[in-house]
Amino acid sequence: MPVDEASAPTGDCFEAAAKFISQSAIVDYPDDYRLAHGNVAKLRQDQTVNHAWVEEGDLVHELSNGRHDVYSKHSYYKRHGITSVRTYTVEQALLYLAREGNWGPWD
């Protein structure tokens, strides 16, 4: 597999991140939040996978498999070898959810 391609996610990160960013408390005050999709080289496996998380300024909300952990963005990106990141405003994420009919990834 080429280095820049990623395997399919095995958890519920896309659904969990999309549901988190869709909460009324965030939709009503969306400016600080971004839904992020990217490739993670070091999560819990030996290969790069597609992954989703939510960014709030300099923080990352890791939401998957029943977890909600918060990290500094810098340490999260470094620790997990994040690449190929695509971010969506709350409005963009909600539009993609409605238009695509799935949790992502979209691009």
Structural write-up:
This protein has 107 residues and is an alpha+beta fold. The protein has helices at 13-21, 24-27, 73-80, 90-100, and strands at 33-40, 49-56, 59-64, 67-72, 82-89. The longest helix has 11 residues, at 90-100. The protein is globular and about 30 Å long.
Helix/strand order: HHEEEEHEH
The SS-based structural class is alpha+beta
Q: How many E-type strands?
A: 5
β content, as a range? 25-35%
The gross shape turns out to be globular
Q: Taking Cα atoms only, what radius of gyration do you get, to the nearest Å?
A: 13 Å
What distance separates the N and C termini?
19 Å
Tell me about the biggest sheet? 5 strands, antiparallel
Q: Enumerate the spans where pLDDT stays under 50 for 5 or more consecutive residues.
A: 1-7
Mean pLDDT: 85
- The neighbouring-strand order within the major sheet is 4-3-2-1-5
User: What portion of residues is helical?
Assistant: 25-40%
| Count of separate DSSP helical elements | 4
